[in-house]
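User: Sequence recovery, please. Input:
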């Protein structure tokens, strides 16, 4: 490889500590990194700098998700490589279209060699590749239920979730009940289902070590 050629990577995560960690390690590994904390700024940076690859978290907080960002960027530049950080396998409808894609567990990003290998694979293959990620119970939830669960994990009560999502309280209560059913928490008579659901979400998304 030409020693003057520097591969560029855009890192997208709404948790600054993760982008800072990855940027430092990738810079030390010879990459040039750009950082964004939401889908809108990521798209703007990508259009301006045309990175070779994008590493994006599945859950970007408010606004478009990591899969929606990847679909948008792939439509602009099909040759761009993508690494999606997640701890559950997205469905085909969530993923939409991206020819050079790798799934990578957020638990694996502390091993920089694993991240570099993932980037190498999506920059060179020109075809979709997938990591070895085991589906979790989160894959049983709809996109709307995941959004409700994300707010539960942030500590919002049902009334606050209803206001946040601009829906009725009854609709939120029904969603919460279906989330408990899907996660099989209705079978657990001990402890708080709400705390347990929040912990499952945190573990599944790789947030803060899965602590409730």
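Assistant: Recovered sequence (212 residues):
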């Amino acid at each position: 490889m030409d020693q003057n050629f520097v591969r560029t990577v855009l890192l997208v995560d709404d948790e600054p500590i993760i982008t800072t960690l990855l940027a430092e390690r990738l810079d030390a590994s010879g990459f040039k990194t750009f950082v964004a904390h939401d889908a809108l700024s990521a798209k703007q940076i990508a259009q301006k700098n045309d990175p070779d690859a994008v590493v994006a978290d599945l859950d970007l907080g408010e606004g478009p998700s990591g899969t929606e960002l990847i679909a948008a960027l792939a439509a602009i530049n099909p040759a761009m490589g993508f690494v999606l950080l997640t701890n559950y396998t997205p469905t085909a409808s969530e993923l939409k279209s991206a020819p050079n894609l790798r799934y990578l567990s957020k638990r694996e990003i502390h091993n920089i060699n694993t991240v570099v290998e993932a980037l190498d694979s999506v920059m060179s293959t020109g075809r979709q590749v997938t990591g070895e990620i085991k589906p979790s119970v989160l894959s049983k939830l709809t996109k709307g239920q995941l959004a409700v669960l994300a707010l539960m994990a942030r500590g919002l009560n049902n009334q606050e979730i209803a206001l946040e999502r601009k829906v009725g309280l009854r609709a939120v209560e029904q969603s919460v009940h279906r989330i408990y059913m899907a996660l099989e928490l209705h079978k657990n008579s001990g402890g708080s289902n709400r705390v347990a659901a929040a912990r499952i979400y945190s573990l599944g998304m790789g947030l803060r070590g899965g602590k409730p």
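Residues 169-182 form the longest helix (14 residues).
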